[in-house]
Structure formats: structure tokens, C-alpha cells
Amino acid sequence: MAITADSTIYDLLKAKPESAEVLFKFGMGCVGCAIARGETIKEAAMAHGIPLEELVSALGIGQE
Question: Which of 9, 23, 34, 61 is 20 to 30 Å from 51 by CA-CA measure?
């Protein structure tokens, strides 16, 4: 399964554990957050005021 901005934070971390470092650099404490199981990367970026394009580029994933 390809990870995109519509994938959950949980799926991202499961597929690419090294992404935790990137999320922390953006000020996102998603690793220990209960919401991470159901929140998409896109939703998390919006909630934290992070430009989606910048986040997906840093994570090395597609927007869709």
C-alpha cells in the first residue's frame, strides 16, 4: 500500500518508522498521540498549521 497524504499517521509510522523524526521536526508529537490511528497526514498538517506540500516532501510521500 502506497502512503499518501490521505493515509493515517499510524499507517505512515508503521510503513516508515523513520518518519517519526520528520514529524518531530515539524513540531508534531504524533507518535504518542491517540488520534494518530484515525487522523490522516493531511488532517494533521492542517491541525498543526503546516503546509501540506512541505510536509509530504519531507516525508518522501505523495499528496494523493
Answer: 34
